[in-house]
Design goal:
The chain is mostly helical and 193 residues long. The protein has a single domain, classed as Four Helix Bundle (Hemerythrin (Met), subunit A) (Up-down Bundle), CATH 1.20.120. 78% of the residues lie in helices and 0% in strands. It is built from six helices and no strands. The longest helix is centred in the middle third of the chain and has 30 residues, at 89-118. The relative contact order is 0.11. The model has no long low-confidence stretch (mean pLDDT 86).
């Protein structure tokens, strides 16, 4: 198997995860900004690998498998870091519930797509605009929360929390969109022509 440039970018994104975790916890001034920069770099490679794969016609089975795995790992690891470092009380509960919704939806939709592909109906659950909007809101929220998780400066943490809750609502909405599209197959109805 020959690994092409888009797949190398995806592998690089996966390799950035332990770097982000390490930087997130290291006790040096600006570690939060550095962790956010690593996260943004990973997010940019997510966009870039897809763009290059389509533009240069460099798609591969391994890349198609690895790209969504890398995306979900990046989001899940970041959410786990933020939940663990979040203060307790109601804000902590809201953060944990929102993170559970987002991770739960990612697992569920991945399983749904895999099952739909098995029965030859993968196109039924293709990515919709609401899913892209959810991803954009989620990425912005995560960057704000990483930057602000341990900052003594401008406090935008509550903005990040609000954006993450909005992303959680969009997550439920997009998950229901996928479920609705797959519902006839889940009920065992024959595919429509």
């Amino acid at each position: 198997m020959r690994i092409n440039l888009p797949t190398w970018l995806t592998l690089f994104r996966v390799a950035l995860l332990p770097v982000m975790v390490l930087v997130f916890y290291l006790p040096f001034r600006g570690h939060n900004i550095t962790a956010a920069v690593v996260f943004v770099l990973a997010a940019v490679t997510d966009w870039l690998d897809g763009y290059l794969a389509r533009r240069l016609d460099m798609t591969s089975a391994f890349g198609a498998f690895l790209d969504p795995v890398a995306d979900k790992l990046m989001v899940a690891v970041t959410l786990f870091l933020l939940v663990q470092s979040h203060p307790g009380g109601w804000p902590g509960i809201v953060m944990a519930v929102t993170a559970a919704i987002i991770v739960g939806r990612e697992i569920s939709v991945s399983a749904l797509r895999e099952w739909m592909a098995e029965i030859g109906m993968r196109a039924t659950v293709k990515v919709a605009f609401i899913g892209k909007l959810k991803t954009a809101m989620q990425m912005i929220a995560l960057v704000v929360l990483i930057v602000q998780h341990d900052a003594n400066t401008l406090r935008l943490y509550h903005v990040g929390e609000a954006l993450l809750v909005i992303a959680g609502v969009l997550t439920i909405w997009s998950g229901l969109h996928y479920l609705r599209a797959a519902w006839p197959a889940l009920r065992g109805e024959p595919p429509q022509a």
